[in-house]
Amino acid sequence: MAERVLVVIPARYASSRFPGKALADLAGRPLVVRTVERALGMAEADRVVVATDDARIRDAVAAAGHEAILTGEHATGTDRIGEVLERCPADLIVNLQGDEPLLDPEVGDRLVRALRADPDLGLATCAHPLTDEVEWGDPNVVKVLVDRHGRALYFSRAAVPGRFPGPAGGSAPFELARRHVGIYAWRADALRRYLSWPRGELERCEQLEQLRALEQGLSVAVVTVASGPVGVDTPEDLHRVRQLWRESRHGGDPDDGSPGRNG
To answer: What is the mean predicted confidence (pLDDT) over 157-174?
Structure first.
């Protein structure tokens, strides 16, 4: 029997930098609805659900013909996804962000296929090449180092790998790191185990949840993509996404979205 794939899109109303961004207009529909429409383009998805703590977001998604679940209060989006999993059983769970309406559905499909190709994997995520030394040194850019088999060795906000001081160290080795993209595909049992583990010391130091998986020995695949999606964290970001939307093949009729497969 084929493994059932559940796509969960966590969406909060109380964003610190842009309150209510999930309901911000993008070509005639709320941002979160446009994200759902993109997720429905995944060939591997069996069900797409928005997980939210706000009835306004739930109602907006439902009004567009898609599925949304009102969850309890949670410290992280991963915790919220864990609640949805217990209410919507599945074998593989894809965590997509609700503020990335330009995400290529193929990215989610590739993560699912990575898990299906290797039963030993509990988690898959993605990354893309760094562009320059400035990006490599930026603590707001999360870097990941991978082994020869494409498994994560470490995630960090620091400029990794380190460089031996002096001439022997050579130039900045930013080409050896990749920029992490926060999209994940989980095996259901791995997600449940992850949520049962306490926060690790490395996770506390770096403030990166994915380090909990590495600290506990969970194997994490890193799929290389060409570039990261354009997300919306601020009103300025939304302006840029609106421009990109108009310039892309998704522009045109504000009501050009497809009906939800869940509706």
So the answer is: 75
